[in-house]
Amino acid sequence: MVYTQPPAMTHDEIESHLKATKVGRFCSLNKDGTIHAVPVWYNYDNGQLIILTPATSRKAKNAKRNPNVTLLVDASEVGVWPKGVIVYGKAELSETTVEEIASVWEKYAPKERTEKAARGLSNLTKWIKMTISPNRIVSFDYTRDEEYKSAAGE
């Protein structure tokens, strides 16, 4: 017997998960072929993922050189089976405004705070918007995997 993959989420579950989860793990390819993986705040809007980052960040430089990126958005806690979504896609870089930065960050803090933070951080460095258009989406939900849980003794 070979175990392959836990159950996938439905389309609606994927949409809900991407909208509700606050942190993703952004992966891009470094010049030397290694993977650069970092936690990021993101926003999910109309089927695309939006990440804001300083223009000089490694993730921005990597995505500019090679737009093929991956974003893992998972939810796991100690003692709870994980579930998540893996988005494989292309990143497009564009200029952004203080207002746009603040609107993306509203998922994480009150509007007054995000506006102040966006203004302050924009004074320190130039920010850009990365829009990730998915090529393929894979999901997993171990909470529904009775075979896996049974094999683990649950």
Walk me through what this model shows:
- The protein has helices at residues 11-20, 58-65, 98-105, 111-124, 146-151; strands at residues 23-29, 35-41, 43-45, 48-54, 68-77, 80-95, 127-141.
- It is of the alpha+beta class.
- Strands 2-1-5-6-7-4-3 form a seven-stranded antiparallel sheet.
- The protein starts with 10 loop residues before the first helix and ends with a helix.
- Strand 5 (68-77) and strand 6 form a beta hairpin.
- Helix 3 (98-105) packs across helix 4 (111-124).
- It has one domain: Electron Transport, Fmn-binding Protein, Chain A (Pnp Oxidase, Chain A), CATH 2.30.110.10.
- The protein is globular.
- The chain contains five helices and seven strands, in the order H-E-E-E-E-H-E-E-H-H-E-H.
